[in-house]
Amino acid sequence: MTQKTPPVCDYEGSDYQKSFWDEGGRAYEDKAEEIALKRLLPKSGKLLLEIGAGAGRNTPRYKGYERIVLLDYSRTQLQQAQERLGESERYIYVAADAYKLPFVDGLFDGATMIRTLHHMKDAPAAIQQVRRILESSGNFILEYANKLNLKAILRYFLRKQEWSPFTPEQVEFVALNFDFHPKTIRKWLEKSNFRLERQLTVSHFRIAIIKRFFPAIFLAKMDSIAQLTGDWWQLTPSVFTISEAVGESPVASEGAFFQCPQCGSTSLKEEPEMLSCSNCDAKYAIRNGIYDFREPLT
Ligand SMILES: C[S@@+](CC[C@H](N)C(=O)[O-])C[C@H]1O[C@@H](n2cnc3c(N)ncnc32)[C@H](O)[C@@H]1O
User: Fold this and answer.
1) For residue 140, how far is its CA from the centre of ligand 1 (angstroms)?
2) Which CATH number applies to 16-255?
3) pLDDT tens across 187-215, in order?
4) What is the distance between the alpha carbons of residues 264 and 228, in angstroms, rounded to a whole number?
């Protein structure tokens, strides 16, 4: 089953949470995202997969879920999440590639991917993986970076930007950073057996001069109202969607959880400090409470 997967935008050793969020002047965007998530999240759920969890900025917002799996490619992001969230049986930390999710089919009743799809060169492959691990009727909250945003449209007409915001293909504006067209995202969701239920446009006021003159909390309140137009048009840099998994999904058998990302076997045995695949013999470390599926131990 080992297949070649696209390159990963590696956040190992990054201080993203501190430099981008805590000290990066993004209180307005953070609050606007909190409002959008609150609107979309179901009241309750059993097991949620947070893909690209980073340092766990959004994790405390998933209040209704009994357990949450924080998955990220970066081990150091997960360590930061552990520090932020503290010790709890409610959280499971997994270092793995979103293109090769190490879980059995149909395991989760919810999944989120916030500010992560924009690092995916092969976004449809990542979306298909999400569908695979969701049970039928499970829900998927996906945030994506929108190329059809007002700033990009203006820049294009003023000839300050070469790429067209109107065409369906994704644009890689910096290496491994992609903006997507809303229509294309909707097509990919549908093709992967997701039924789009709701769209919220987020960060309407992500413009330096506006942010300088108006308090974050005021902008977030204005954003909260404007978000409600998200099903009609999408012209913001960020769009939140919720979709339902439709069609058949295998039911994960009792006790089954992890799947070997190398051979696809669901027969993984937990030993002290490692998981061992009884099919291909690959061994994966469990270090400081993090299941590490990035590569097998040698
Ligand atoms: C911009 S950060 C967002 C973190 C968090 N969702 C938030 O909104 O604060 C993107 C995260 O996606 C992770 N990531 C990128 N590519 C990934 C992949 N292929 N598999 C798993 N995680 C990935 C990065 O390590 C990083 O922590």
Assistant:
1) 16
2) 3.40.50.150
3) 999 999 999 999 999 999 999 999 999 99
4) 41
